Amino acid sequence: MTPHNTETPNTGTPNTGTKHIFITAGGSGIGLAMAKAFLDTGAQVAITDSNSDMLAAAKAAHPALHIFTADATSEEQMQTAFDTVMNMWGGLDVMMANAGIAGPTASIEDVKLDDWQRCLAVNLDGSFLAAKLATPVMKAQKSGVITLTSSTAGQWGYPYRSPYAAAKWGIIGLMKTLAMELGSSGIRVNAICPGSVEGERMDGVIVREAAARGITPEELRQGYADCASLRRFVTAEDVADMAVFLASPQARSITGMTMSVDGHTEKVTL
Question: With a threshold of 0.70, does the pTM exceed it?
Fold first, then answer.
């Protein structure tokens, strides 16, 4: 297998310097925003998602996408999708391990073990499987970028969201370790830590957490905004822009880093 797009110094407007991008959980939200952003650079993009309807909608809106229905926690399903993509492309420049779920919103004594395990499986096991699949290909190429989606919850903690915070904290540990393991093979590994991101997922989180706290959703939404120096939420497109930058030659010396896209979190409690 021949090396893909070995990174060289570059200046000017960031571009990916890459051609083949694989994104897990790319059917909606941050993952779809990443797919759009990479398509705009002229890259070829493959996305997986467990929701086939969302994948179909993404394909209808962006016909250049390669779509695969796969559960990010299923090694068999992910292997099948990955093998199909590798048979098409012969190599991989960027793996975006983006699968995640919000998990339960409750005090620790009220969190069910099944809910805890499911949250860790999708967020942390999903990142592990994506990195595991990409690594042999990238080692053979002696180049590649693996970017994991964590969260500011993985830096600060998150009251009433213990499974989510634990999983996202684990992703940062995984990222740091992989950066150490894979750097000598020319592979860069980083994590993106979004803060409060506008969208349906965050709307649901706010409703559930507001109920747990005994306040209104409007009060909680404003409280979240006030936790950031910019006093606002970020967008999925903001996160996608960071993903494109980390995949670009301009980021050729950046590895092992947690890149916050959060408007600068000042506090995590209201």
Answer: yes
Residue 99 lies in a domain: yes
Of residues 117, 149, 151, 148, the one with CA closest to residue 131 = 148
Residue 74: inside a domain: yes
How far apart CA 43 and CA 21 sit, in angstroms, is 7
Q: Amino acid identity of 151?
A: S
Q: Report residue 38's pLDDT band, with 50, 70 and 90 as the boundaries.
A: very high
Contact 259, 205 (CB under 8 A): no
Nearest residue to 237 via CA among 55, 16, 38, 30: 30
pLDDT above 60 (res 8): no
CATH for 73: 3.40.50.720
Residue bearing tokens 């590798």:
86
5: phi then psi, degrees, rounded to nearest 5:
50, 60
Q: Is residue 266 part of a domain?
A: no
pLDDT tens per residue, range 232-259? 889 999 999 999 999 999 999 999 999 9
Could you tell me the CA-to-CA distances from 227 to 74, 92, 151, 159, 230 in Å, in that order?
A: 36, 38, 15, 14, 9
Catalytic annotation, pick one of 158, 160, 164, 224: 164
Spell 170-206 as b/e; 16+ CB within 10 A means b. bbbebbbebbeebeeebbbbbbbbbbbbebebbeebb
Q: Could you tell me if residue 81 is inside a domain?
A: yes
**53 φ, ψ (degrees, to nearest 5):** -65, -40
Q: What is the mean pLDDT of residues 55-72?
A: 98
* Residue 191 bridge partners (DSSP): 148, 258
- Is 224 a catalytic site residue? no
In the chain, the number of structural domains is 1
Domain of residue 119 covers: 20-196+236-261
